[in-house]
């Protein structure tokens, strides 16, 4: 029986990363969520990165709200003791605050997720306010924002100049003023992440942003070595499960071809007396 106690949004919002770091992983299905729920991970992000690592798209842009709902439902069922944040996919919140509330409301209502995450800075402050007024907790996301990767010139490190760092800090402060409870910082210099973490009163969660954030997040497939099309520089692979899975599948294929699987001990057998009756009745 799982006795893990889920953290609340206020507990996350008040987190002081100097005492203990927040830990977040992505998950996209029930089995991975169940595994994470049996660990010390405090948050699960159902990221629109599922478009790349699960659905095979080249970017996150094709991911739909229905995709996010279906995958988030599975994760919530698998992780009752872990706070679940679901990404708002491309064009589900960018057109207007009203559309954002409708879509985020559906994502929360139909999945049971605890919060949503959206990408973007001060431009979306009114959207964040509208979501928070509607009772929907919001996590922000600055730096490399994958939904805007084309505009940013690709998946590149952001805020590498003083003006860009100032803009990022201003965006962070605007999002905090609008009501976010936490902020993801992706692919920015660690010095910038440190300064933002020092100046904003909500926890920062880094991914490729160095060690000074209040917490860290990585993609499930990167941690386990399951995705070989692209591994970010900042991602540490704690296992090479992709290689082990390929070896296991190849062993299965070879045993089937050789006729050694399934072995007799893996097969169901009739009681001898019943088999004899079956043969006597003309069945064998």
Uncertain stretches of 5 or more adjacent residues: none
Number of helices: 11
Main sheet, how many strands, which sense, barrel? Answer: 8 strands, parallel, barrel
CATH topology heading of the largest domain: TIM Barrel
Round the Cα radius of gyration to an integer and report it.
Answer: 23 Å
Number of strands: 8
Structural class: alpha/beta
The assigned CATH architecture of the largest domain is Alpha-Beta Barrel
| Shape, principal axes of CA atoms | elongated
Largest beta sheet: what is the strand line-up? 1-2-3-4-5-6-7-8
Q: Beta-strand percentage?
A: 5-15%
CATH top level of the largest domain?
A: Alpha Beta
Order of helix and strand elements from N to C terminus: HEHEHHEHEHEHEHEEHHH
What gap, in angstroms, lies between the N and C termini?
Answer: 49 Å
Average pLDDT score: 94
CATH superfamily of the largest domain: Phosphoenolpyruvate-binding domains
Helicity, as a percent range: 40-55%
What's the number of structural domains? 2
List keywords for this structure.
eight-stranded parallel barrel; 284 residues; 8 strands; alpha/beta; 11 helices; 2 domains; elongated; single chain; TIM Barrel; 41% helix
If you had to describe this structure to a student in words, what would you say it looks like?
The chain is an alpha/beta fold and 284 residues long. The protein folds into two domains: 9-239, Alpha-Beta Barrel (TIM Barrel), CATH 3.20.20; 244-283, no CATH class. 41% of the residues lie in helices and 13% in strands. It has eleven helices and eight strands. Strands 1-2-3-4-5-6-7-8 form an eight-stranded parallel barrel, surrounded by five helices. Helix 4 packs parallel to helix 5 (97-111) and helix 7 runs parallel beside helix 8. The longest helix is centred in the C-terminal third of the chain and has 18 residues, at 241-258. It is elongated, with a radius of gyration of 23 Å. The mean pLDDT is 94.
């Amino acid at each position: 029986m799982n006795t893990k106690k889920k953290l609340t949004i206020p507990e996350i919002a008040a987190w002081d990363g100097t005492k203990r770091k927040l830990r977040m992983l992505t998950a996209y299905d029930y089995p991975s969520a169940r595994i994470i729920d049996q660990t010390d991970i405090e948050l699960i992000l159902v990221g629109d990165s599922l478009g790349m690592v699960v659905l095979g798209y080249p970017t996150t842009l094709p991911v739909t709200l229905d995709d996010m709902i279906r995958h988030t439902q599975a994760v919530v069922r698998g992780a009752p003791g872990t706070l679940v944040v679901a990404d708002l996919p491309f064009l589900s919140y960018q057109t207007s605050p009203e559309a954002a509330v409708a879509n985020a409301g559906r994502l929360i209502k139909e999945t049971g997720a605890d919060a949503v995450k959206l990408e973007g800075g001060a431009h979306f402050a009114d959207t964040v306010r509208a979501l928070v007024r509607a009772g929907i907790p919001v996590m922000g996301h600055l730096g490399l924002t994958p939904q805007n990767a084309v505009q940013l010139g690709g998946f590149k490190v952001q805020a590498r100049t003083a003006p860009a760092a100032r803009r990022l800090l201003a965006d962070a402060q605007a999002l905090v003023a609008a009501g976010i409870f936490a902020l993801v910082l992706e692919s920015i210099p660690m010095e910038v992440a440190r300064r933002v973490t020092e100046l904003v009163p909500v926890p920062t969660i880094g991914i490729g942003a160095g060690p000074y954030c209040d917490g860290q997040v990585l993609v499930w497939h990167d941690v386990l070595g399951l995705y070989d099309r692209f591994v970010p520089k900042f991602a540490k692979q704690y296992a090479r499960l992709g290689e082990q899975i390929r070896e296991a599948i190849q062993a299965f294929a070879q045993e089937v071809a050789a006729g050694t699987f399934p072995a007799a001990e893996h097969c169901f057998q009739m009681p001898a007396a019943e088999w004899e009756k079956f043969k006597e009745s003309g069945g064998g």
